[in-house]
From TrEMBL:
<comment type="similarity">
    <text>Belongs to the UPF0213 family.</text>
</comment>
<dbReference type="InterPro" id="IPR035901">
    <property type="entry name" value="GIY-YIG_endonuc_sf"/>
</dbReference>
<dbReference type="Pfam" id="PF01541">
    <property type="entry name" value="GIY-YIG"/>
</dbReference>
<dbReference type="InterPro" id="IPR000305">
    <property type="entry name" value="GIY-YIG_endonuc"/>
</dbReference>
<protein>
    <submittedName>
        <fullName>GIY-YIG nuclease family protein</fullName>
    </submittedName>
</protein>
<dbReference type="InterPro" id="IPR050190">
    <property type="entry name" value="UPF0213_domain"/>
</dbReference>
<feature type="domain" description="GIY-YIG">
    <location>
        <begin position="3"/>
        <end position="81"/>
    </location>
</feature>
Length: 98
């Protein structure tokens, strides 16, 4: 069975970044778009998916999420570029609020 434990970063319309964990990325992104996601993201949409990585276990994913949340913004921005193959928005997906 394929892993569904994912760590993701979304960029809010104000340019801030939010990092989270989920076991259903599409449903979680829709919750953010609907204003029912994390308290931090409410009213900050639309969002752009900047980074997503899946892991074999919840533990691995949660450890990665924790690590990313400890980084300063500059390191998060560098990570996004690195993981997107050097292209700033290579894998970004814009999510619109309803």
């Amino acid at each position: 069975m394929e892993s569904k434990h994912a760590v993701y970063m979304i960029r809010c319309k104000d340019g801030s970044l939010y990092t989270g964990y989920t076991n259903d990325l599409n449903a979680r992104l829709q919750k953010h778009a609907d204003g029912k996601g994390a308290k931090y993201t409410r009213g900050r949409g639309p969002f752009t998916l900047e980074y997503c990585q899946t892991f074999a276990s919840k533990t691995e994913a949660m450890q990665q999420e924790y690590q990313i949340k400890q980084w300063p913004r500059v390191k998060k921005e560098e990570w996004i570029v690195l993981k997107n193959g050097g292209e700033r928005d290579a894998y970004s997906k814009e999510l619109y609020s309803s």
